[in-house]
Amino acid sequence: MQRFLKPWLVACLALLTSLAHAQDSKLPVVASFSILGDIVHNVGGDRVEVTTLVGPDRDSRTYQPTPADADKLDHARLLLVNGLGLENWLPHLKAISHYRGPVAVVTEGIKPRMIREHGKLVPDPNVFQDPVLVKTVALRIRDALIAADPAGRAYYTERALNYTLALDDLVTWAHKQLAPIPPPRRVIFTAHDDFGYLGERFDIRFITPPSPTRNRELSAWEIRRLARKLRYLGTQAIFAENTASPQVVERVARDAHLKVSGKLYADALSQTQEAVTYLQLFQHNIRVAVSAMKNNR
C-alpha cells in the first residue's frame, strides 16, 4: 500500500470536505407550503436549505401535520408561514415538535381582502395570486433570513431585489397578455374563491359558488343556478384547481353544456413541469385564462 495519497486524490477529498462543510453551514429553513418554499429558495439561494411541509398539488387548508413534519421542524433555525389563516394547523405542529425558534409571517404588513366563510368575514390568505403583493412577501423573507443569518445580509438583499424585479416584469407581461380582452369579457368560473387578488389586480371577475364547497356537496338546485348564470353571462372560461376535486366544476359545466377549460393553480405548485416555480405557476394561470376568456361572449 502506498504511504502517501496521490495529489489528485487529495484534491478530491478536499473538495468533498469543502462541499460537506458548505452543506452543513447552510441555514436550515422550513416553509409551510410549496409556493412559499420556492420564493424562500429564490431569496435565500445557496445560503439556505429549504424544507417544505405542504408539498406540490396539496391543499394547505386540509393538511394535517405528522411526526415526520415535526422532525423536519426540529432541525430548522427558522420557520416561515403565510399567515392570514392559511396554516390553522400551526399550533398543533408546534405542540408535537420541539421547535422554539423564530416564526416569520411573510404577509405581515399586507392589508388583506376579506371574504365570507361560514357566515363570517375572514382574511383571504391567497395573496400570492397577486405578484405585486408577492414583492412584499419577498422582502419579509429577506428580513427574516437576515435576522437568522446576519452575515448574509448583502447576499439576501441582492437576491430579493432581483426577485422583485422579476415580479415587476411578470406584472407587465400579464397586463400585455390580458390587453386584447375587454374587461366585460374577463369572467371565469372556479369552485372556490381563491383568485380574488388576481381578479382585483387584473380586472378579472371570478364567479364561484355562494358558500365554501371544500367540505360539502352542492345541491342540484345550486348547480342549475350556477349553470344558468354562466349561460346568461356567456362565460366559457370554466376551471378546476390543482388542489381540489374537479367534481363541482364538472357538474356545473355539464349542466351548462360547456367544457372545462383546464386547470388553474391555486395554493400549491405542481408535481409536473407545468408549474414547479411560482413564476411558472403565475404564467400558466394567465396563459390558460386568456385563452379561455377569448371565447367568452
Automatic annotation (TrEMBL):
Signal sequence residues: 1-22
Entry's localization field: Cell envelope
GO biological process: cell adhesion; metal ion transport
Entry keyword annotation includes Protein biosynthesis: no
InterPro entries: AdhesinB, Bact_metal-bind_prot9, Lipoprotein_PsaA-like, ZnuA-like
GO cellular component terms listed in the entry, alphabetical order: cell envelope
Origin superkingdom: Bacteria
Major localization class: other
UniProt GO molecular function: metal ion binding
Pfam families: ZnuA
Keywords: Metal-binding, Signal, Transport
Protein family per UniProt: Belongs to the bacterial solute-binding protein 9 family.
Protein name: Metal ABC transporter substrate-binding protein
